[in-house]
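quick one
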Amino acid sequence: MARDNAIEPLALDKILDLCDASAAAGTPVTDLCSGSSMYDITPLVDFSCAGAELAPAIRYGELQGRETLRVRLSELYANEYGLDISPSRFLITDGASGALAIALMTLLDPGDQVILPAVGFPIYKTLVQMVGAECVFAPLDEEFKYDIGALRQLITKRTRVIIVNSPSNPHGAVLTRPEMEQLLALGLDVISDEVYRLLAHDHSAISFSELTDRHFVVDSFSKAYALAGFRIGYAIVPAKYASTARTIKATLNVSTSLPAQILAERVLQRHDTLIHHHRTYLEANRDLFLDLCRANGLAVVLRPTAGFYGLIDVSAAAPDSFELARDLIGRYHVAVCPSFDFGRPDPRFFRINFSCPPQHIQDALPKIAAFLKTVG
Ligand SMILES: Cc1ncc(COP(=O)(O)O)c(C=O)c1O
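structure w/ pyridoxal-5'-phosphate:
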């Protein structure tokens, strides 16, 4: 099948397999590679559940997601931005991944073109391929944001959608309001992926929904609340696409896990506290990461301003970033995410998830430095 050739497995999956194999052989690996925040929110939310509370959760739920959860999300946007977004515009999905898939399936026909960041979250490319559309990779400027001038040159009659990711994975680049306005003015359908928005260290990230209600906004409980295992995400759907998006959601998996939705409502009740503690924890770890990079002579690609990733430049080392990451596991039992998945040519960095326990950062960074000295 042609698709088998087109859709490449992620290097990160292979790294995770190597970690599992090493652990099974008795040598656990320090995980700095995953995309989950490792911050533990369980002391801050009561997730205990009596059987009766789960009684409504044993059958299919509302296609759009529980109304109580959608009302709480609507209240969150009202409190945070003063926005009036009706609960009926929220579509609860299986993570932001589910929301991205639904948005792309809603907007695209086979052969349409989608603009993506040249260095960005690799799942965008796979999803675009899955709907039979074409990826157009747009260059980033020195701040790792879309280069608007270059972007305009890429637009053709077939360009339908642009994916915007602020703060971005992997760089953590945060778009300002004027930058978002410039993207909006391109006249394309926008899918704004905002899963790291609440983790901007200086609180500066804005939502596309502050500018317009005519484009898809995608968000998730995975990153901001460190709850990737719940698989709860959502899309804020433009009115004109509401019916199509809902039908696609129903076709894909009827309703999103009801037990997880019930527990997600409790998370929103503790929103302010959770976000405050999570950010404080991440900022301390970010500082530790930067101090240790400095002390060990590791070059960071840029100072992280959002989220929980730091990028270490490995461009001076010989093989590609995947081979390097694989050798690092074998020799030092430290797993990092290689830049190999994020763009072509390989941008040649290690993405470090610094949301792990601080001791792991302290132990691992000198090992990464020692390793890079042997391959540089
Ligand atoms: C930019 C970005 N968007 C979407 C997702 C998917 O998140 P979820 O766990 O909610 O499916 C991720 C996860 O790594 C991500 O980094």
